[in-house]
Specification:
Strand content: under 5%
Distance between the termini: 63 Å
Helix content: over 70%
Number of strands: 0
């Protein structure tokens, strides 16, 4: 029942927040980067920008989480860049901002609102579970590799006219 009620209540609010960010990062930035960079570059650059944009938010939200800043900076940056491979691939493959928005919203729902509250809090939990944990780093790495392998399925790059 917790999952059903949490998911239903969060869905409308979370999707709107992710839509605003999705419009900017995935809606505009990714297609523009794809005109001048190969897929790997698009995912890396958009992921690094996405990570940097989140740093102030993460610093405030996780300042009392018991993790040193160097740890959450490393894990969050890695995860943001890794997940950007899926986000960029979905955006370029579908030519729509909606699949990345739903991926982002679903991630926020499941990790922040469902898995974290259901996780038993042990002395090592903060290092392994949640947005900043090592388990998510491993999952994000697998996702990044899977979408990097699928990069050949993306539409051919449009030729950008060069100024004379």
């Amino acid at each position: 029942m917790f999952v059903v009620l949490t998911g239903d209540d969060w869905h409308a609010v979370g999707r709107r927040r992710c839509h605003w960010r999705g419009d900017r990062w995935r809606g505009f930035l990714v297609p523009e980067l794809a005109k001048v960079l190969p897929f790997t570059g698009v995912a890396l650059v958009s992921g690094l920008i996405w990570a940097a944009w989140h740093y102030p938010i993460i610093a405030v939200v996780y300042r009392d989480a018991g993790l040193p800043p160097w740890f959450w900076l490393l894990t969050f940056t890695f995860v943001a860049v890794a997940i950007s491979f899926a986000q960029a691939w979905l955006r370029l493959r579908t030519d729509s901002v909606w699949p990345p928005i739903f991926l982002h919203a679903s991630h926020n729902l499941w990790i922040q609102s469902i898995f974290t509250p259901l996780t038993s809090d042990q002395h090592y939990t903060k290092w392994i579970a949640g947005d900043l944990g090592l388990a998510f780093v491993v999952v994000a790495a697998v996702v990044a590799v899977a979408f990097w392998i699928k990069r050949g399925e993306l539409p051919a790059k449009q030729v950008v006219p060069q100024p004379v």
